[in-house]
Amino acid sequence: MCFAKTGRGPTEDLRLKMHQMVDSFCNNHQNQPEGQEQEQVALLQLEDDFNEVLLDTVDLHYQNSNQESAPLLPEVRQELRSRVRRSSVPSLEDESVEVWDPRESFYDRALRLFQRLLCCLQQKWQAVLAWVRRMVAAGMQALCSAVETVWSVFQDFCSFVAQVLRSAIQA
């Protein structure tokens, strides 16, 4: 497969790393007659590796995109990682193991396994994205509420000062 490209930013590096992981998986398992259990272990490791590289890229992308704003809080970063690792979306480990056919070609089996892997990862990351959107909405609602409170106090202050000045002028 061999995909080689020099990465320029977090997303380009992500693509490169994912291609390298797939290349490595294929190179390591293509010529080895493995049983279903070893293949499942290797695929679970690949799922974990994908999640880690995706999480690292989220961190890098956020840092690069938001240099002027607040950094991603460690608690939020940890919660994001926890949600990916303990997602309610079934992972490959939770799925029932398909019947392993030793006559199936490596590439047919790899395609089938990668389709399962990608489906699991897609569902997991969609759930994480939905959580992030809910958190942002809740955070923005809290920020709006805080600004509204401050604005109300400021308006009251301005009204009070205007009344004091009117009283002083009338006196």
UniProtKB/TrEMBL annotation:
InterPro entries attached to this UniProt entry: IL-32
Superkingdom: Eukaryota
GO biological process: immune response
Stated name of the protein: Interleukin-32
Gene: IL32
